[in-house]
């Protein structure tokens, strides 16, 4: 009785797998048939019926390879490839269309049918859906490629180099003084910073000027709020009437630094989040609210062009320098903590915050996973962020007009005083 039940279950499972293989082929065939819907019957190499049958054939080939001979799948795959190639050559003679996308899609359909039967139906389904989306968005993909600039492609390739190539090669163990340096984790933090900057760059690039200063300021905080502060400050001298909007953009960009800090902490050391959430949240709120208020009162003014991004979103040299800076800060932090206690950490945070807040934030997060007290790490991060925003306030006041200096300076000072006070009290 058990043998009959097991046979029934196996038969049903096989039937379901073959049905999925057929449906996945039909899915890709619908997309291919839609593209070639204007062609007459018989002029298409493969439409919905052909793709559905090829998907089913792929599933059957997987069954035959398992039940009869291992050569069944490669032999049938080769047969489908030869038939498709002959049809493609015949079409080329008439249409002079040399694209092999349809040919590759047909071969993939065969493979998806085999995967649905022999490997995993969910995986085959996901792959088929992604393939159909890629096939259906030909013009959109080509349009994006046409808009891509050479230095942006170079930056994307470099990001892949430092993440998927270099990162796995580094040892995941402590080295150096006190074993405080972990090459894998330091480089992983570099990759994380580079990725966020890369995304922020393209958020500004894709957003366009029509989205206005609100969108630009918000996403500039992911890439370079300092660069945006300088750009908007200079612009306020040439267009004083736009000063309130420019101030709103600066405040938004500087405020976005705080969600970024929380993101780093959530990924590296979630245990530090409860101590950071209140002071960092208040500091961000005290910048966002004045920014939104300024924008709401003056948003009818002409929109400001987004910052001109002429540099690479990611330079490999910058990543290497940041990695070295992280290592130096971690070694100095360990030495200062031993020599001066918490005071040394606070001095290091203040000096690091003048130029950059990411490196010290990541370093203190990493150190708090070891023997650095949580409250010390929280206060150090708040000090670094406060000093960093204080420097941007000076840039706004020095390079912008007087009104911009006040509109940026007052919320900045209130934000840093509140954040330092809450962090100290906690």
UniProtKB/TrEMBL annotation:
It comes from Halomonas urumqiensis. The chain crosses the membrane at residues 15-34, 46-65, 71-90, 102-135, 186-206, 245-264, 276-296, 316-333, 345-364, 376-398, 404-425. Residues 18-142 form the MgtC/SapB/SrpB/YhiD N-terminal domain. This is Uncharacterized protein. Residues 191-400 form the DUF4010 domain. InterPro entries: DUF4010, MgtC_SapB_SrpB_YhiD_N. Keywords: Membrane, Transmembrane, Transmembrane helix. Signal peptide: none annotated.
């Amino acid at each position: 009785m058990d043998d009959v039940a097991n046979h029934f279950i196996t038969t049903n499972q096989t039937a379901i797998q073959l049905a999925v293989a057929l449906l996945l082929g039909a899915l890709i065939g619908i997309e291919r048939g839609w593209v070639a819907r204007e062609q007459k019957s018989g002029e298409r190499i493969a439409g919905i019926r052909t793709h559905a049958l090829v998907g089913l054939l792929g599933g059957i080939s997987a069954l035959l390879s398992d039940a009869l001979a291992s050569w069944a799948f490669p032999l049938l795959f080769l047969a489908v490839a030869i038939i498709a190639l002959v049809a493609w050559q015949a079409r080329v003679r008439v249409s002079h269309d040399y694209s092999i996308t349809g040919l590759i899609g047909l071969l993939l359909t065969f493979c998806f049918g085999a995967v649905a039967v022999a490997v995993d139906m969910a995986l085959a389904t996901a792959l088929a859906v992604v393939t159909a989306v890629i096939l259906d968005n030909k013009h959109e993909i080509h349009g994006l490629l046409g808009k891509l600039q050479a230095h942006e492609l170079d930056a994307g390739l470099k990001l892949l180099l430092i993440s998927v190539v270099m990162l796995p090669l580094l040892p995941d163990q402590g080295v150096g003084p006190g074993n405080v340096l972990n090459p894998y984790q330091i480089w992983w933090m570099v990759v994380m910073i580079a990725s966020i900057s890369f995304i922020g760059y393209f958020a500004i690039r894709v957003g366009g000027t029509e989205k206005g200063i609100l969108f630009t300021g918000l996403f500039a905080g992911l890439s370079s709020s300092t660069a945006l502060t300088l750009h908007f400050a200079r612009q306020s001298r040439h267009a004083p009437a736009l000063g309130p909007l420019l101030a709103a953009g600066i405040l938004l960009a500087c405020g976005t630094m705080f969600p970024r800090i929380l993101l780093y902490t959530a990924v590296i050391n979630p245990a530090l989040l409860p101590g950071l959430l209140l002071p960092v949240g208040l500091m961000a709120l005290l910048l966002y609210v004045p920014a939104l208020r300024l924008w709401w009162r003056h948003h009818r003014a002409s929109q400001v062009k987004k910052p001109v991004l002429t540099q690479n979103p990611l330079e490999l040299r910058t990543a290497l320098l940041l990695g070295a800076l992280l290592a130096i800060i971690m070694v100095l932090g360990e030495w200062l903590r031993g020599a001066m206690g918490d005071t040394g950490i606070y001095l290091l945070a203040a000096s690091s915050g003048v130029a950059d807040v990411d490196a010290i934030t990541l370093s203190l997060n990493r150190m708090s996973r070891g023997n650095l007290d949580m409250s010390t790490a929280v206060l150090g991060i708040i000090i670094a962020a406060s000093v960093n925003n204080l420097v941007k306030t000076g840039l706004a006041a020095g390079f912008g007009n007087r009104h911009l200096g006040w509109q940026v300076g007052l919320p900045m000072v209130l934000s840093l005083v509140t954040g330092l006070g809450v962090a100290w009290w906690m």
